[in-house]
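Subject line: Sequence and fold of a protein, written as structure tokens
Area: Proteins and the way their chains fold up in space.
Start of record: The labelled sequence and token lines come straight after this line.
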Amino acid sequence: MGYISGVAGLIIGSPLDVLKVRLQAQGDASGTATRSQGARNPSLSAMVQNEGIKSLFKGISSPIVGLAGLNSILFASYSASMRFFEVVAPPSSTTPSLYAAAGEALQPLSHVFAAGFVAGVACFLVSTPTELVKCRAQVIASRLDPTSSAAAQKAILSESGSWHVTKDVIRRFGLRGLYQGGLVTMLRDAPGYGVYFLAYEGLKRGLEIPAGETGGINTWKLLFAGGVAGTLSWASIYPLDVIKTRLQTQPHLMSTDALRTLPTTATARIPTPSTSLLSKSHIEARGLVHQTNRQGHSKTLSSAPYKGMVDCAIRSYKSEGMGVFMRGATPALLRAFPVNAVTFFVYELVMAELQKLE
């Protein structure tokens, strides 16, 4: 039941997740030669118009496959960490009567945050390859040149599936390639899950939800607590998520066979540094000239790969300003509430049933 509910949450949240990732990757400082109208102005309607309804669910296979492992590691690590803290630092005897009646002692919220932090570190083993494949599958089609041949566009779209992306990464970089951006993913997940569990447990206590009670008014309280916890978690680590997406979707890491082998129309050929005749727009897109926007931020773009997350953050800021680190935050936060409300509620249902069996 938990897996099915998780998949349902992924499906419901997929359109907003695709939009979030495309907004994050938009205009990245690693540079691309040409971009489609949908890439310049990503929106749900533009995605459907340019790529069809399937574009709203791009990359969803990867998190669906990894969901069972991810949630298993997450909640198992969290529960094990809480048991460890219970042994080394037993909860205080000043337990609220509501929980004492259920025979449950409360641990400090600092322990809850620490347990969530540990769970986030453990999750990176699954979340990094899952996120990498998902993000690349979601942005490949957005980087289509709209003036390229129909054959080229069809071939590139065929390479934007999760399975094809996975095979391409392993073929070109080996299994280690699936962990590109692993450090920033861990730095995102660890505090993110710490806030996740801290907010949820704090809200449960504040709303006075009895342990193991999931029916009646408690259903809505649990859904509210889970939704708010997910939203706060995403808000707390969102800039790191932007950096992670940009590191994992750099053009040189996700070049497709179709882009390398199929011809485009004469006006749509992708320029290279050795091209003798470059249009002004292509020169600017390649980052071969220096411009300054109205806010005074440098718009110099370089096709050189990022050296790491610090380099990515600095170059993104210099070219696009501080706002770049919150790009795509609106769809991300809108998606976070329903998805995490369902996730935590199902977790509570399962735990309640397990306690009855014991």
Notes: Residues 109-140 form the longest helix (32 residues). The CA atoms of residues 24 and 242 lie 6 Å apart.
